[in-house]
Specification:
This protein is α+β, with helices and mostly antiparallel strands and 632 residues long. It is built from 17 helices and 30 strands. The protein folds into five domains: 2-159, Nucleotidyltransferase, domain 5; 203-317, no CATH class; 358-453, no CATH class; 465-551, no CATH class; 553-632, no CATH class. Strands 1, 2, 3, 4, 5, 11 and 12 form a seven-stranded mixed sheet that branches. Strand 16 (253-258) and strand 17 (261-266) form a beta hairpin. The chain is globular, with a radius of gyration of 29 Å. Keywords: ATP-binding, Chaperone, Nucleotide-binding, Signal. This is DnaK protein.
Length: 632
């Protein structure tokens, strides 16, 4: 899982735990306590889904869930960190950039944070490779977001644990066991009020909640002889299985219906599906106990709620477990406390273990630079002999021996050995220091390998992202404008009801509707569909209609009375109503009755009535999400 921490110039800090399956957010400042926040749908968890149809129709998070269920081929789950093409149009890091922009915009809207300079610290999963870190940095750059630091998600919870004194007076060591959707991680820390030292860290991101889900899927398809021949069916069944898995945390049996079959799962099924995880935990806990003495442990990650895994860990550790941290919010809240320059902290020393291994290749020699036992503040130095034309390379052995960087050393002399030091930069990537000969610094010249994002390529990405953001905003604005025409169309249709369905007026108006739709679509195609154009089309519409349906004088007076009348708060409520209507349309939720209410009553409606309809749409959106998605 990823975790983002955003530090604003107004001293507000937003911590975002960007998991592979869901996103969680916390906010705090010097004067505001750190707290967990909900998204604009009033949910604590936001799905990590990206949907793309074309440059005017794409979305991330809640708005993408239903589309991903209907069109799996147009969906990406979890942010891609590469420069491969998706949907034939977008590169992986560009999808990540767009998603980050959507996340930040949602946070600013829900917390009323003004547009200001954002400083971002992102916590990354321990298994992220150095190349993936580089692509993530490119995503921030392409999105125009200032990212100042990367940290690991395995370190963030200890920040919260120590900052809010979630420990007993006699406790000075703790283990965090994180069983999330994408992996199993065990971390051990020694600490006091001023110091945090990570003494142990092991992880395996090949097994997690996703493994349990896939195992349960195999059990169900075999037991009930289900043939899953397409991705859409697989996703629907997997969604039902996830809900059943959640139910089994509190009940011994869960039942649901799929293709008219009653499907049942028990806790025994879940236990059988956890065997890969328990094998990993057995090894990690054994190593933890050999490495350090711990006073207590904390469970994190959605799958830590599974009773079988809780009991398994209790038996293996045989020490008292604390449950002072919420499994959903601990990482994002810890991220907020990591911004110690903005949120007061007593902690003066922080030492985290590295989660990658790197070697240096030079003239056929291999030098071990960083290992899993290295701390993030270590500074190894090697003595090498080379010349100005020879290329040295940093290779990540924890990433299939891929070359991460190539460089040459430029010094005043190559007669003597060159002292070359290495550090881990703010983005947790290894970099060479300036070469030294007899205390005199030289320079390092980097050569491109080919996997990197080139400067001209990055500029094209910036332009593309700007274009996509502009297009979707323009579409939403146009649809709002179209609503005024649709409102009038509904009003006319309601008036026609008194004439009966076989009246000639229906036929006459159908031709007018086609003509008006043509005018509006042409307006859109020409790219000049401003408010004046829309009002001209609406006036023309009314002129044509009045010869067929005579509007009552009373209706005209009411319309004139309320045209242009609205308080600032009422206008804001109307805008929220239209925004929520758009969201529900994308989610495939029923909106016909609300649209009719808008057409018939919006002009004369009180602000309280408008807010009531907003609440109706929010509840429908919530129910729609519950049908298709649940996160453990």
């Amino acid at each position: 899982m990823f975790l983002i921490l955003i530090q604003l110039s107004l001293s507000a800090v937003v911590g975002i735990d960007l998991g592979s399956d869901t996103i969680k957010v916390s906010v705090g400042s010097r004067t505001l306590p750190v707290h967990f926040v909900r998204n604009s749908y009033n949910h604590e968890l936001t799905p990590n889904r990206f949907y793309y149809q074309d440059k005017r129709h794409w979305g991330f998070g809640e708005s993408a869930v239903d589309q991903c269920m209907l069109h799996p081929d147009k969906c990406v789950t979890s942010l891609p960190l590469n420069k491969n093409y998706y949907f034939g149009t977008l590169k992986g890091y560009e999808i990540t950039a767009l998603s980050l922009l959507q996340i930040l915009q949602d946070v600013k809207n829900s917390e009323n944070i003004p547009d200001d300079e954002l400083k971002v610290v992102i916590a990354i999963p321990p298994s992220m490779t150095n190349r993936e870190k580089s692509y993530l940095y490119s995503a921030f750059t392409a999105a125009g977001i200032l990212c100042i630091q990367f940290v690991t998600t395995t370190f963030a919870p200890i920040e919260l644990y120590v900052a809010e004194k979630r420990y007993s007076t006699f406790s000075h060591s703790v283990a965090f066991i994180d069983i999330g959707h994408s992996g199993v991680r065990v971390s051990g820390f020694d600490f006091n009020n001023e110091k945090i030292i990570q003494s142990f860290g092991e992880f395996n991101d090949n097994f997690g909640g996703k493994t349990i889900d896939e195992n349960l899927l195999k059990i169900v398809t075999k037991r009930y002889r289900l043939k899953i021949d397409n991705e859409k069916s697989r996703l629907h069944l997997l969604s039902d299985i996830k809900k059943a898995k959640e139910t089994l945390t509190v009940q011994p049996k869960a039942t649901f219906t799929f293709r008219d079959k009653s499907i049942s799962l028990t806790r025994t099924d879940v236990e059988n599906s956890c065997q890969e995880i328990t094998r990993e935990l057995t090894t990690m806990i054994k190593h933890l106990r050999q490495k350090m003495k711990i006073d207590t442990f904390q469970l994190l990650g959605g799958c830590s709620r599974i009773p079988y895994l809780q009991n398994f860990i209790d038996r293996n550790l045989n020490i008292r477990a604390h449950k002072h941290l919420d499994v959903n919010s601990a990482v994002s809240m810890g991220a907020c406390y990591g911004a110690f320059n903005e949120i007061p902290s007593r902690i003066k020393t922080r030492e985290a273990l590295l989660t990658f291994e790197t070697i240096l290749r030079c003239n056929g020699n291999i030098y071990k630079i960083f290992t899993y036992n290295s701390k993030d503040n270590s500074n190894p130095v090697v003595s090498v002999r080379t010349n100005e034309n020879h290329l040295l390379s940093l290779v990540e052995t924890s990433d299939a021996d891929f070359e991460f960087s190539k460089f040459s050393l430029q010094t005043y002399s190559y007669i003597y050995p060159i002292e070359l030091g290495f550090t881990v930069n703010y983005y947790l990537m290894p970099v060479p220091d300036a070469p030294l000969i007899n205390g005199v610094e030289g320079t390092t010249l980097f050569e491109r390998i080919g996997w990197e994002v080139e400067p001209n390529e990055l500029q094209k990405s910036k332009d593309l992202i700007y274009d996509l953001i502009s297009n979707i905003n323009q579409r939403l604005r146009n649809e709002k404008k179209a609503n005024t025409i649709e409102e009038y169309k509904l009003k006319v249709q309601n008036k026609l009801k008194k004439y009966g369905i076989f009246n000639w007026r229906h036929l006459a108006l159908s031709g007018i509707y086609m003509y008006i739709d043509y005018q509006y679509n042409q307006c859109l195609d020409e790219g000049e569909c401003n408010d004046r154009k829309v009002n001209d089309i609406l006036r023309q519409f009314k002129q044509l209609v009045k010869y067929i349906v005579k509007e009552d004088e009373e209706d005209e007076n009411v319309e004139q009375k309320f045209t242009g009348y609205s308080s600032a708060s009422r206008k804001k409520s109307i805008e929220k109503l239209y925004n929520m209507l758009e969201v529900c349309k994308v989610a495939g939720t029923q909106t016909d009755d609300i649209e009719r209410w808008i057409a018939q009553n919006l002009r004369t409606a009180t602000e309280e009535e408008i807010i009531e309809n907003i609440g109706v749409l929010k509840e429908r959106g919530r129910r729609a999400q519950n049908r298709y998605y649940h996160d453990l």
